[in-house]
Amino acid sequence: MIIDASFINYRLSIITMKDWIKAARLRTLPLSLSGIIMGAFIAKWRLYGEGGIWDWKIFALALVVTLLYQVLSNYANDYGDGVKGTDAKRATEAESRAVASGRITAKQMKNAVILFSILSFVATIALLYIAFIPKYMNEFYIFIGLGLASILAAIGYTVGKKPYGYMGLGDLFVFIFFGLVSVCGSYFLFTKTFSWDMLLPGTAVGMMSMAVLNLNNMRDIESDRLSGKNSFALRIGFKNAMIYEMILLQLPLILIMIFLGLNGFIQNQNYYVFIVMILLIPFAKLRRKIMAVKEPKELDPFLKQVGILTFTMAVLTAIGLNFFK
After folding, report:
1. N or C: which end of the chain has fewer CB within 10 A?
2. CA–CA distance, 85 with 224 (Å, rounded to integer)
3. Which residues contact 38 (CB under 8 A, 6 or more apart)?
4. Comparison of pLDDT for 161 and 285, the residue scoring more
5. Do the Cβ atoms of 69 and 154 come closer than 8 Å?
6. Which residues neighbour 21 within 8 Å (Cβ) at sequence distance 6 or greater?
7. Distance CA 3, CA 75 (A)
8. CB atoms within 10 A of CB 296
9. Cα separation, 45 vs 199, whole angstroms
10. What is the mean pLDDT of residues 38-44?
11. pTM (2 decimals)?
């Protein structure tokens, strides 16, 4: 029987591409987009009231940049945990993570991390060029620094001799970069100003991002103990991590409501902007389901659910501000 070599190569290329797509962990992408949507559309609402111009090109490039950062982070995480042997101690994760399973070699993944670091930096420069050049040169250089910091943070979670994710600092970095930098930074790209009330939605998205990471670390708490990955959940214990999770899932909608209240929507009796509050019910149901979990491995399905709720919170906030004026 003669087998066509080109057909074999074609099949192998399909399998390899599937492995790379799986390693990119597409289910994490809605979470990364949430901060950009939140900051960009709050800026759109505020610029509309001031007669300013909202540039869709900035929004499109900001989405591309954050997606590249997220894929870079996922590849770096796969590489770092793979070469350290952390994923090998996770019964379920070892089967799905590319380096640990051997579907993608550590060298190939390292090259992918380098490639996406370059792509992320190039896309960042393109975004900042459109947003700031030629009138805002100081801001351009400051945001170049933020972009480099974001790339280093994406890599440094699990890669290197002292990755911060192994020291229990992952929650802090996620809060800063997925919350404050993402929301307040994207807002600044459009308005060229900083407003203190933006810390409220920035904190809301940051806490939701922390909730996802904490669930991930709670799920892996026993395997992380064996591998020496001292996540924050491991440091405080499963019971306290569950209390911490409930706080993270309780406060974001309250912060959004305070933000809307501070901007006069209650006084103006424009209650339609509070459409985001319909999420109080699914948030409450999600908290009850998570609290009912007895085994850490049962937490895995909730990672995607929290990510989708974060994305929905950002979209509904954007709709409320821009379509119910």
Report:
1. N
2. 10
3. 182, 183, 186, 201, 202, 204, 205, 313, 314, 317, 318
4. 285
5. yes
6. none
7. 34
8. 18
9. 17
10. 97
11. 0.90
Residue 286 lies in a domain: yes
Residue 91 within a domain: yes
**Mind listing the pLDDT tens digit for each residue in 14-32?**
557 888 888 888 888 999 9
Q: Which domain holds residue 103?
A: 17-323
Q: Which of 70, 62, 1 is nearest to 36 (CA)?
A: 62
What is the C-alpha separation between 248 and 40, in angstroms, rounded? 23
**Structure confidence at residue 95 as a pLDDT band (50, 70, 90):** very low
Is 2 inside any structural domain? no
- Which of 270, 231, 196, 197 lies closest to 90 in space, CA to CA? 231
Q: Calculate mean pLDDT across residues 244-271.
A: 90
Encode 210-224: b = buried (16+ Cβ within 10 Å), e = exposed: bbbbbbbbbbbbebb
Residue 164 lies in a domain: yes
Q: What is the pLDDT of residues 55-70, one digit of tens each?
A: 999 999 999 999 999 9
Number of domains the chain contains: 1
**Residue 304 scores a pLDDT above 70:** yes
